[in-house]
Amino acid sequence: MKISKCLLMFLLAVAPVQALNIIPNPSFEYWIDTLGVHLPLGWLTSEPLHPGSAVKSTESHTGSYCVKLMGGDTAAFVS
């Protein structure tokens, strides 16, 4: 009985930790303005190197914002 209680307490303590999202800002909802360049919080983009390659957009599937990648003749990325 004591082992069952200990196991139950352990599972209750660990379960909420596993539910946390390990990716920061996964839906690109939060943006920062750095010297006039909009960047998704917690992400590195090609926007500072190639303006217009990774921009904030409202054409999202869910949520309010998304990242719109436009490569053209340059590499557009979000990592």
Descriptive key words:
about 80 residues; alpha+beta; two-stranded antiparallel ribbon; 1 helix
Helical content, roughly? 10-25%
> What proportion of the residues form beta strands (DSSP E)?
15-25%
Mean pLDDT: 82
How would you sum up the major sheet?
A: 2 strands, antiparallel
Which secondary-structure class do the elements indicate?
alpha+beta
Question: What gross morphology would you assign?
Answer: elongated
Q: How many domains is the backbone divided into? A: 1
Radius of gyration: 20 Å
DSSP strand count: 4
Distance between the termini: 49 Å
- Spans of at least 5 consecutive residues whose pLDDT stays below 50 are none
How would you write the strand order of the largest sheet? Answer: 1-2
Element order: H for helix, E for strand: HEEEE
Helical stretch tally: 1
